Queue: 3 jobs
Job 1
Amino acid sequence: KDVIPTQFLCSQLRECDITMSRPGGASFRWDISALRGLLSNAYNLETLCIYAINAHALPQNHVPGQIMLLSLKTFTFKIDGRTEPQFAQAVMNTFDAPMLESMDIHLSHSSSNSEDNSTPQAWLDAIFRPTHLSLRTFPNLSSFKLSLKSSPVPLPFESVLRAIPRVCTLTLDIPQCYDPPFDECARDYGCLRDLRVLRLRNWLGMGSSELIGLLEHLGSVKGSEALDTVELEGCAGFVEKREALEKLLGNKLVWKG
């Protein structure tokens, strides 16, 4: 309880779920070096899920190199409550997974404290930016899902999209958030060039200009080979542009209300 085990052999472990929380929602400072020790013994992991609730990280005087998880294919990171961005960054700094194929990020934030830095924006920056000037990329990632439960906030979509340059299936469940700069990232950075399936869920108040711009850009670059499916579910912001989307996509558009 409240201890990350490190001194046991688990080289044959293929799947691992780690929940880092305390009873009653109390904050707790976790020893990230112990997490690194655990992962160093589980170097054949294929699936890893970390769930952090109100999690903080103990200060580290020395930050060792990352553990290489060459077999890791699927990573899920769930962040809830008042989890510090420094914790999320410390977790991501423990391992490198160059062959990662699928990533799910689930963020749940409900604080109304304007001084609280535990926000979805800060969490995503912590995950995808090791430093302010560097970007953590996942060159082989083909499937990415971002889910957010929060009030309207701007998110660092540019960093996220640039970090997953070869994504084929992109799922965004981000109610009431500001529009991702799809078109800008595609034109300026070459993002989303391999995109085949785009799923947008619960976009309640956003417009559709960025999406239409992306579809037009991909169409001009890849022609009829651009995208297989665009699935819209609970996207009230696109109702007025449904006809335009149907004209662009034809039977590739899946509209779920």
Job 2
Amino acid sequence: YSAFCISIWVFMIWKYSKDAFLSTLLFMGLGNYVFLFSGMRQSIAMSIGLLTIHWLFCKKNWKAFFSICIAVLFHTSAIILFPLLFVSQFRITKLRLILFGVVIGFTLLFRIQLAQLIVRYSVYSYYEGHYEIGGSISGVFLLLFCFCIWFILINWKDLRQQKSVILLSQWVFLLALGIQIFSSYAYAFTRLNLHYFQPIALIFPSSFDKVKLRDCFGNYYWMLSHVLYIAIVAGSIYLYLGQLKGAGVGMNNYRFFWEL
């Protein structure tokens, strides 16, 4: 099954990644690589679900729908991909970004209560009280937040023109950020977000496009892009090493570092 999963990942890197090295590091740092060795059914579902991105980029929504349905047959967590079929049709504007920020803030304030409702009345009630051991869900949250801001900044012109590929890519970042908020309540949300981490690893390197960076930052684009690139490489390695030290789940409570 690992050969199947890696084969799809290699195909998607070849097809969509602008930087195979950075995509691979993000794949490892965000937890997908380590999870590949333990979660067989979900790993297969994630690989099939990754093809959803391919079909959506090709504007073949029915094929994307069926790929998600097939992924769900292997693991129900693939249900989390269904929103991509709809949100990609919504244009991102300043007002919607402000509203999304308000929703994120509200969710942060009441994440425990919201997470309890989601977990207790779903098939994931088993994971209530189970938390991630190893890695850093706080680090991943901050990484996703920075990714969202950077991607919006670099691709704002394309977002305003409603270019479908960029629009879908941005929604992947925003949805992943929203799910990550709940990851400190139960390990189930960390596992759900693995479905979004794969396309993020593919998409994010495209934000280092030299033309867009020059338009956005002028003569400083070279310095800023290299500083961010080095920071992402270092952060991915750090997160990956943390996963190796204690990957798994346990009963230890976890809070974001700003809540300690």
Job 3
Amino acid sequence: FEIERGQWNAFVFVLAFGAVALWRRGGTSTRLVSYSMFTLAVHLKIWPIFLVVGFVDLREGCRKNIRRLSWLALANLSLLMVLGPQYFIIYLQSVIHKSGDPNVWLGDHSLLSFARQVTDTPAAGRLLGTWLAFGFFSAWLAVTLVGLWRLKSGSHPLMLVFAVVAGMLLPATSNDYKLVVLTMAMCLLWDSYREPRTRLAWAGLMETLAWLAIAFGYPFVVFSYRYKDAWPTMWKMNTPYITIIFVAVAMLLLLRPPDVP
């Protein structure tokens, strides 16, 4: 069911990751194709915008990276204006409205939907959702910047998986079928597994615990809420388990030695 309903997300995942893979190969024509693939992915679904980090390589210098990201942003904004500014404004208002008022059902794994379902009143739900959103974006931005500073490249597998897991916690504009993408990201994550290599015993222990947390959290994500009737509402949803994976991948990203591929 999830694969069938999430087929557009699977297609977008392949487009976005294929774009990053092509970009890493270098060459002007190859990179133009990769930019086109990424732009198409972002216009089909919004969440791939997190994967723009894959086009950052600090070894090329900050100015070159800023120019590349600016051209990508300009290209995407220009395509949104194809039908005219009024349609862009309508589209933007629609996205903001639907994102701020997510579907409140157990199958939605966004932080805002989670906040609405674990609180007693709409006002409390909005307040909790605001704080969760603030904490989430702050953590995502901080970990992404530190990860780039340490690894120098946004196309590192851990950076890309972290971006995908972050996208899972965003509110959907319709019924949420993004989980198929998490399955594909987990394959990439486990393929990047390396034995902990650090001189600090506590860091090696934390890295091992992070892998165990991922191994614990992911099975509960694919275990449907339909079979969790007797569970507390909070644990029926996938949001807590995806959050555990989000924190665990962040730990791996911050603990991975820069010289380990």
